[in-house]
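Appendix B: a complete holo record

For completeness, this appendix reproduces one full record from the ligand-bound portion of the collection. The bound molecule is pyridoxal-5'-phosphate. The inputs are the chain sequence and the ligand SMILES; the output is the full three-dimensional arrangement of the complex, encoded as C-alpha cells. No fields have been trimmed.
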Amino acid sequence: MTPQLTDNYMVTIAERLKSAYARIALAAKKYHRNEHDVCLLAVSKTKPADFILAAYQQGHREFGESYVQEAVDKITQLVNYSDIVWHFIGPIQSNKTALVASHFDWVQSIEREKIAQRLNDQRPADKAPIKVLIQVNISLEDSKSGCHPDKLASLAEFIHHCPHLELRGVMAIPAKTDDPQQQIQYFEQLRACFDRLKAQYPQIDTLSMGMSGDVEAAIAAGSTMVRIGTDIFGQRS
Ligand SMILES: *Cc1c(COP(=O)(O)O)cnc(C)c1O
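The structure of the chain with pyridoxal-5'-phosphate bound, as generated:
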C-alpha cells in the first residue's frame, strides 16, 4: 500500500505490541497497580491503515491520531472495523472541529472553551457524547499546548455543562527532561489535577500520561492510559 511497508510488518507490529503490553504489566506489578487499570493507546499518526489493521488483528482496539485529515482518511478506510475506538490527541484548529466531532470517540486535547463549544455543537445527534480529556500544560512551557493549571477548574465546569461532551479526565505531554525526579514531579502534578477534578466529577476516570520514553514513571504516578507510537509502529520520518 505504501513504500513504508515491509513484507513482515504484520509480525513486527504484533511483536512490538506484545512487548508494549508486557512493559505495562511489568511496571504495574512493580508499582502495585493492576495492569488492567492502565490502557494502552496505540498512536498510529503518520502510519498507514494497514499498520492499524495489523494491531487490530492482535486484538488491539484503541488508536490515537494527531492530524485531522490524515486520521479521517484512515477512519474512512477502516469504517467496517466498527469496534475501533478512535482518540484525537493533536492540536485542534477551529476549522477542523466538525471533522473531529463526527469521526472520533475521544478527544484528549481540549485546551479552551471555544473548541469545546464547537465540538459540542457539531457532534452528530445520532452519536454518543464525545469523551473528552482536558490537556494541561503541566510544565508551564510557553510553546506547549494545554490549558494553564489555574484555568483547569473553569474549563472543566464549562465542559460539564456541554450535553454532547463527557468529561473523563486530563492529559499532558510534559517537557522532555533527563532528570527523573523532575519527570516524576510533572506526573505527580498532573495526578493532583486529576484527583481534584475526580473529587468534583465522579465520572472522571482517565489520567492520560506516559509515552514511549517514560511509561514507568507515569504508571508509578497513577497513569490510567499510556500513549505509545514509536515503540509499536516504528520511527516516524
Ligand atoms: C506522537 C504522540 C505520542 C506517541 O509518541 P511516541 O514517542 O511515538 O511514543 C503520544 N502522545 C501524543 C499526544 C503524541 O502526539
